[in-house]
Input
Amino acid sequence: MNSKRFIEVSFPVKEVSAESAREKNIRHGHISTLHIWWARRPLASSRATSYAALIPAPKNDLEWDKKRQFIIELSKWENSLNPAIIEKARKDILSTNGGKPLKVLDPFAGGGSIPLECLMLGLETYASEYNPVAVLILKCTLEYPQKYGKPKEIKEDLGLLKTGEVKNPLLEDVKKWGNWVLESAKKEIGKFYPEEKDGSIPVGYIWARTIPCQNPSCNAEIPLMRQFWLAKKDNKKVALKPYVKDKKVEFEIVGQDKPFPKDFEPEKGTVSRAIAHCLVCGSTVDDNTVRKLFQEGKAGQRMIAVVLHHPRMQGKIYRLATEKDLEIFKEAEKYLEEKRKKLMEEWGIDPVPDESIDPNSVKPRTMWLYGMTRWGDLFNSRQKLALITFTEKVRLAYNKMIEEGYDKEYAKAVVSYLGLAIGRCSDFESTLCRWHPQWEFIPNTFARQALPMGWDYAELNLFSPVLTGTWESMVGQIENVISHFSQIPPMEVEE
Output
């Protein structure tokens, strides 16, 4: 008897690799949109290799070609829930084990790609992890959708859910309580993100870190900006143009209402490789001095511009930050201290992460060079306020669910997804997030596995109806994941 598996003699590496690469651009329902996890394996290769490792090697060229083509089809994202293909894969695997489901144990499951695909293939799957974040991701990937996410008919009128409707209860409750958290947080701190008189909504704020010029005869404030573009598209070019007035750097917006000057080069900012250039006197500040100023607490920050979106208009518009904007930020700063003290008394821990950044850890060491020694230093005051307020509301949502008679384990499942949403939001809500002028949006902090210093940064309004990273967008992505995972058909074994 030939005991070799298909993967031992052949595998369509090129085709499966192509599907794995294509998967990076798939967002709707993909596991990567549940929560960030390093080195998560592609679902395409996880599904294809698991299948190929369990079926026997082909007996002849014809069988080899059929199995090879099937593996290619199996690896495609659009076939991940295809009933015919998944059922065939399951039957092929069952037949190799006398009709009994095989057991799979992944002791270092990480982000859950391999156990998820083994579950998809009908295997009795066990996954374990040491990291608590990974454990939560695994429960939200493998356990909760299968346990609570199967569509069922509503037997009684439950407010949003009407009798006779067939709904996914887990999905509906994540929607319901996600919206409750949003509205509760907005009611409390929405005033710190006020709308414009014309109804425009602030979706983001452009900030620049600052240092004092080291020329004794100048001492002007240097806004550290790597470039001045706000929008850089073929059909839209808007930028901040700096100018000096009364020994202070001021800005105007060009390309929107004012014409774009021909001789202006927005690519040339005031800082490059930590070497700063003073626009007032023309002197430079070397990189070591710049870092020293940050370490000594002599660096500051300045709100430069506000990014706006009007519900009845396409695209984004920009305006300069005003004294009123700064006053509102200072009010948020004051409210943060009050709320932080209150929650610290209630929770017994600081709601703002006060753990030290390990200076011996290679990739975050950059933060120490610029005086950021604790994780809480990576957020400005309003960002901290927003994140701890959403965290508080998620905790309150759990309490409210218990008061309404929800099962404790089920309520825990619902708020687990909302907790992951906070993690997703925090990735887009730090002072290391920059404004991307080509796309006019805010990329996340962990665009790569490092924490590079950001001279200018973009602060996201988590209540904004547009831009990735807002509460609504992150919960929406998680809802798509729940919907996708809940459709994994249960394994039926013939007796």
Q: What stands out?
A: The CA atoms of residues 148 and 170 lie 6 Å apart. The chain has two domains: 6-141, 192-483. The chain has a mean pLDDT of 93.
